[in-house]
Amino acid sequence: MQNPPQMPAQRDETAAPEAAGTSMTSRAVVAAGGGDAGLAAALPATRVQPGVTVVGDTSHAWRRRLAYAFLIGYALLMFVPFAWTVITSFKTLEDSVRLTLIPQPFTTAAWDYALNQLHPNVAQMFFNSFVVSIAVTLTNVVLGSFAGYAFARLRFPGRNFLFLLVLATLMIPDQLRMLPIYIITNALGLGKGPLQLVSIVLVLAISATSVFLLRQYFLTIPRDLEEAARIDGAGHFTTFLRVMLPLASPAIAAVTILQFQGTWNGFFWPFVLIRDQNLWTLPLGLTEFRLVGGFGTNWPPLMATVVLATIPILILYLFFQRYFVEGIAASGVKG
After folding, report:
1. Which of 4, 224, 282, 294 has the most crowded CB, counting CB atoms within 10 A?
2. How confident is the model at residue 61 (pLDDT cuts 50, 70, 90)?
3. Residue 11: pLDDT over 50
4. Alpha-carbon torsion (232, 237, 242, 247), positive or negative
5. Whole-angstrom Cα distance, residue 262 to residue 179?
């Protein structure tokens, strides 16, 4: 029997390039001197895309460490005044003017003076400050939301001019408005009794900063949401109340923190409009720590009162800091 014809062996086309590549690499390693250095020199260089961190990139790790070290150092530097305030509140008057970290001797007399010997007392000043700050914050949130939505979404003649006019009020100092406002509040009968607190609320009821922040945030919300609400039959007010306002919670939180802090720490308008000492706010009460003759300051009880006045601001910021950062960041995106 005849053997079947054998087929010619097919040539492996893939093996040849691989063998050629292997031999070329081997020759390159030998030419480079052999060893790990020769192998590294023979391998082709890889191209790293910009913005991509290479595994084992020590320079990037060191940059991150330096950034963290800088931020931690800056945070500690900003904490030094508050820490010094707390330490001074436990010192005596003689020790408060010395540069010492540990009170010598340690005493709580300043806290007793601040809590029990002021007129009006701290509780009354806290209450007055809370009333004014909450009222001013609410009016800025409500009126600022309406104005911000109108400037961002409604079409009416002179809209851009009116918005620029609102921003122009930021350039008018309070000292320039002091005399006209004082005369108007007295003419309206707001200079007597608890109405003195009402006069402060009316002066600070709305600010251009609140309108600007809310208007900028409303501009970042897609118009598709409003169009969908209009298809469902919602008008401007319903769209604003049920669609736009809930989405603007970060900007509202930012306005809340800024206005509450500004009013809580405000000194100028309470000093101008409040005559009754029982209606003093905390910033006015801080002027009560002058020594006999008015040429010195009783530092320890002053620092104790400052610590008490700082606590509400810290609590407010801790609860709303995430929304505050989001609102400030988003308000500057579109204009």
Report:
1. 282
2. confident
3. no
4. positive
5. 22
Beta carbons within 10 angstroms of residue 114's beta carbon: 25
Q: Which residues contact 221 (CB under 8 A, 6 or more apart)?
A: 244, 247, 248
Q: How many CA atoms lie within 13 A of 228 on its CB side?
A: 7
Torsion angle (degrees, nearest 10) of CA 265, 269, 274, 275? 110
Phi, psi values for residue 326, rounded to 5°? -60, -40
Residue 103: CB atoms within 10 Å: 18
The half-sphere exposure of 206 on its side-chain side, counting CA atoms within 13 A, is: 14
How far apart are the two ends of the chain, measured CA to CA in Å? 95
Burial classification of residue 96, based on how many CB atoms lie within 10 Å of its CB (0-12 exposed, 13-18 middle, 19 or more buried) = buried
| Bigger pLDDT: 9 vs 318 | 318
**HEC per residue, 208-219:** HHHHHHHHHHHH
Q: Report how far apart, in Å, the C-alpha atoms of 110 and of each of 66, 93, 309 are.
A: 41, 9, 15
At 301-320, the pLDDT tens digits run 999 999 999 999 888 888 87
Residue carrying structure tokens 């040539």: 11
Cα dist. 194→34, 90, 131, 208 in Å?
93, 35, 11, 27
Whether 110 contacts 91, CB under 8 Å: yes
H helices of 89-116, where?
93-96, 109-116
Beta bridge partners of 290: 297
Residue 14 in tokens = 């893939």
